[in-house]
Amino acid sequence: MSFDLQDIPLDSAASAAIAAQGLEYRLLDPGNRAALAAWIQADVRGFHRARPRKSDATHQLQVLTDRRVLGVYDPKAADRETPVATVSGWPAGLTVPGGRSVDAWAVSSVTVSPTHRRRGIARALMAGSVADARAAGAALAMLTATEATIYGRFGYAPAAQAATITIDRPRVRWIGPAAPGRLELVEPAELRNDAAALVRRAVARTPGEIDRWPGLLDRVLGLIDLERDFARATRVVRYDDEDGQPQGFVTYRITRELDEPGILDFDFLVAATDDAERALWRFLVEQDFVTAVRGRLRSIDEPVAWLLEDPRAITVSDVVDHLWVRVLDPVAALSARVYGATGTLTLEIADPDGPADGTFELEVAGNGRGELRRVDDTPSAPMATPTRAAPSTRRSRPSQGIRLGVQELGAIYLGGVRPSVLARAGRLAEVAPGSIALADRMFASERTPHLSIWF
Ligand SMILES: CC(=O)SCCNC(=O)CCNC(=O)[C@H](O)C(C)(C)COP(=O)(O)OP(=O)(O)OC[C@H]1O[C@@H](n2cnc3c(N)ncnc32)[C@H](O)[C@@H]1OP(=O)(O)O
């Protein structure tokens, strides 16, 4: 997707819904630093965060220049320059099973001031962001959520989970193979050039990972403000293969009291190969003078349990819905991924008044590539406010097929949830015996989907 994000017209339905409240929906000009700075203040306030340091605000201003930034303004407010609601969006690739990247629209910074909540502003912003995503040609919209109760009503579903993994360091005995390369402790700034390429390769290996935006690595590596405690504590180790080529890195910090062993926290383990992944895990879990090793936003399917003699040394906690997906264009979304089994499956998708509504046929050939085509003659419906999926009343087709809502489609899309689980929950039905079992096999992903960042 390459176009000027400013060229997308402001969604008229969202504008009208906001105007009906006596408020104004505005697209911010990336050159207007004062307006963006006020928007940032509203954004952090909306998330109950402290006012940003100057270095963070400057960094955020830079990040926002590549995004579509929208605000809602109250002409009656004492401070009319600070928005009462915020949202931002930008095009980003999402890795799907098989390693391709699908054009997606990332939605972030959805906040409504505590003084203006529960009068439909977020609903209008969500409809506006879907309109933006469709105008940008995105196959789906995606987000990470503060609360799991908000986005289902807008057609989003959790598609990739994440968890905190804590390892009891004294119980660690490594039984995995030794990696053939070597580890190198490097200063964060030294890694800046290699990091972006390594991250791109790591993202392409895992369904659920999204393209990183310019600036994210600077934040992760602590390069925004070198004097900050976070930056001073951040250490980086890189894994190079036998030929001396960098294949991964991990950033970590050890927190400890005087004379006490510490806790190692890592939040960015990037591995472009399995050797790199194992070597970096080994480095982390074999640290001396450390009682625990803790990684947040890790996969729920980490191989580390099979690399330690005592799998009970590992505690998996805080398993959360992490990546939420809202399918907008089923043909583009489902034709991008690779499937676990061949077959032909009809999908009757209920997306009342939404763009994904209709009947489609998914055909998967021997190479796992899938092709989806619409088999009804429903014109692409204009986006209205989506609601929870309702059971379809369409006549069932004789072939193998399933009936599901757009939320359920989002849930199974990356292979993180089996259709049969949704069927047991009464949220998905088969049109002929055996269809759910076929859907389970077809939607399976070789690798469990996982997203390792917030956005
Ligand atoms: C992708 C992201 O950015 S995630 C970040 C989300 N933002 C935050 O958590 C910041 C703090 N919270 C907020 O700023 C606001 O409360 C928001 C953005 C979550 C909601 O804004 P509002 O303008 O109050 O929401 P709005 O009035 O449009 O409500 C729309 C619907 O969502 C529901 N809803 C809104 N907030 C919540 C919530 N926190 N939990 C459950 N339901 C909610 C409303 O009840 C309403 O339901 P219904 O119309 O289907 O009956």
Automatic annotation (TrEMBL):
Record keywords, A-Z: Acyltransferase, Transferase
Residues forming the catalytic site: Y151, F455
Domain of life: Bacteria
SUPFAM superfamilies: Acyl-CoA N-acyltransferases (Nat), SCP-like
Region named Disordered: 371-400
UniProt xrefs under PROSITE patterns: GNAT (PS51186)
Protein's UniProt keywords contain Signal: no
A Pfam family: Acetyltransf_17
Family, as annotated: Belongs to the acetyltransferase Eis family.
PANTHER family to which the protein is assigned, alphabetical: N-ACETYLTRANSFERASE EIS
HAMAP family xrefs: Eis
Protein name from the UniProt record: GNAT family N-acetyltransferase
Species the sequence originates in: Agromyces albus
